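Input chain follows. Return structure tokens only.
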Amino acid sequence: MTVHASTPDSPSPDLSATLPEPSLDPADWDALRSLGHRMLDDTLDHLQSVRERPVWQAIPAEVAGRFGEPLPHTGAGLAAAYAAFERDVRPYPSGNIHPRFWGWVIGGGTPSGMLAELLAAGLNPNTGGFRQSPVLVERQAIAWCAEMLGFAPDTGGLFVSGASMANLLALTVARDAHFRQLGGNVREDGVMDGALHPVYTSTETHSCNQRAVELLGLGNRQLRRVPVDSEYRLDVAALRLTLKNDIARGERPLALIGTAGTVNTGAIDPLEALADVSEEFGLWFHVDGAFGALAALSPSLRERVAGLQRADSLAFDLHKWMSLPYGVGCVLVRDAGAHRRAFALTPEYLRHAERGIAAEAWWPSEYGPELSRGFSALKVWMELMTHGVQTYAAVIERNVAQAQLLARLIRQHPNLELCAPVPLNIVCFRFAPGGLSAEQTDQLNAELLMRLQESGQAVLSSTQLGGKYVLRCAIVNHRSREADFELLVKEVSLIGNALLAELDAPHSAIPTIYPNKENV
């Protein structure tokens, strides 16, 4: 191919004069406005009528098949895309906005939070830094979160996607501070001293903490899982013994993770005692308070998480018990300087200026791994202004009272068994009529759970406690009412009795859908 150089006598052709002008803005703003209003009205109708629909329904094969369609090379337009959403997406979510969704600790969202998300997307800022109001919004919202949970106004912090990321960031700061204290620089040299640097937590810790220590290069072997007591709380005496034995072997303990609200039962570790142990042994004290930390908002529940305010770092979610739209969690770090040292990296092209758009002193990107960041802070800021802390406290108190109501209904029922204490908002139970083997009871409850979910009446999940398969009801839903829990007990009883009848029928058995307890 011959390439001809341009000369003053033969100028380059003006391609812009021959190509159509591309744009991602609408050709007809009035039509977009009309469709946008319809989308908003449809969504508000969907939220307002949520109780009238099943909690969950299976996705038909025909619908699932459409998600295998090829990549579109020419656009069909927003109206067509919205029609596909209405047909194939809106009817088949997990159902967590429904008042009888209690399967996992997943918040239900709010209409006002949805609108805050709309405003954030319309502004579309990158909140990694810069002199802009969205960064100031985040800084103020973090200060409000610190105040809510008993931390000082100068606490370091950041909004992230959820508590999994918040735990990872907190333990990253802990690792950096630990090696600095030993005279090393883990950011420069990595974990290369050949010693073991264990992180201690309970056997009930959330799996995200294992992922965190793996990602930090410490390895799962260095996550020391300490036994729990009869109420599933970390056993402090066992912790002390483990620490003393590890130190005697020459190991260098790094951090202690306490849990405020375990995922299995809602158990709250003895945080005051753990703070004492951390001070005694020189450990970084981190609290995984994904949902349970927010009990501190309630004057009547605050004592249950006493010691939280002594933590060096805290991870919690706002999309769980505060019902903000997904996803937004928060990490708080008492020593803001240590927080920044663990992450800050300022190349020349990101240098802060004395004036202009880069003049802001606080850049969120220097407190975590992400430079490109959305405006999650807006929904936190607006929802706190909209509802106030007292309203959230009232919702949390009601959910805890509902958990106690459900526990009473279970105790009163002849065929239901309460399988763990109910210290907060999680109720573990099972259908246990007697006369069945342990394996049959497990199989019965596994099938009962599937039929309950498929009925659309309620969504629970399962876990394993003391070798038993149990049903788990996690209550963080601001739409739940007392009558919903009465309905739950009724439905569980009906399905359980129907399964018993099937067992009594000739040549019948409960389907084997629970073949391996290790996979629960």
